[in-house]
Predict the structure.
Amino acid sequence: MKNPLKNFANYINESKYFIFLFCIKILLSPTLLISQNEHNHHTHNGEKINLDSNNTVFKKHAEKIKLVTGQGDFIFSWDEKLSSAFPKGANKFELNMHGGFNEDLETGIVYTGIPGYGLCSISPDLREWKTIGVDEKLKDNIHGIVHFSHKGKKLLAVAQEGKRVLILTTEGKVLSEIHKPLGNEFKFDLANKFFSSNESNFGVTDVTYLEGIIYVAHGYSEGDFILTIEEKNGVWSWGNLAWGGKGNLPGQFQTAHGIYAHENHIYVASRAAGEVIKFTKNGQFVNIFNDIPKGSLICNISHKSEHYFMNALQSIGNQKSAPIYVHTSKQLKSTIIPGELEIPGLTNIHQVWPHVVINSNGKKQLYILVHGWNKGKYAVLKLVN
């Protein structure tokens, strides 16, 4: 007959062994997660953990693990609190978002438009939104926007595809309204020929400003050009500089979708070509960015912290959303996939904008503002490393 006391003792010993292994597994799991995260930033990022030699302490039930995306020095999480600053009155219009952002670099105020809701400003800390102006035209889609200083005055220019380009004050007062060219404005025969045709359209997509000239991307059209607007005696009208045309030759475009001025040059996002093209301010071709992943429908381009920020319109392959790229113009530094952050409704991206918030302690914090498309969506991503 088997000894029941001996069997019970064996059971206790075996139980202790399994309990010991289970405890070891629990203690090691956060360390393994952190180790994995350091090698693969497209997974989860553990909260900071105190691993003192004398005291290994994990917060009770541990804080919710953050999802992160990106590589190297540019790893981002979703800032739900700042994203939720989106105005409640604009929620019903969010699905229609189809624009972008620009910024007063002196004050840090960000400007954007929400079709049906209007032109908006966002406070430098990204916590407060305000509508600007009462003109009903500002409720039409603002596909592209730029803030600039001209002759000592701060102004905005907005591109409203199919309709107009507006130049207005930062309080929303419209100063000039520019419509489709007639076909005799430019020292560029190809543009004049296109706009003088009865079959031409007005497909403005974006605007930027450099040294007294507003540069206009006209990419939603067979007349795939960069056009210019100038001011004379307080009135803005078409200038004579234009270049481009639809094609694959250097200096031509396949949907000139985004335009951006930086360091005395003009950068154009040629969407269907998946290119960012650099020009002089007079429209002379300089070069094309290297190392942009094949298949990227590049919508826009901007610059901050010695890097360019750009986005593709849609996902590539099995990506969970359209990607955002951090780039040097020669080398891709990080691929950020907002879809990996489980942001509801964010799949396609129309534009992104890098923005720095200076905290009360003087520390700078980099964010990326995301303007979704197709299903709309506003989101704020926060640099976490």
About this structure: Residues 4-9, 15-63 have pLDDT under 50 and may be disordered. Residues 77-383 form a domain with the Neuraminidase fold (CATH 2.120.10.30).
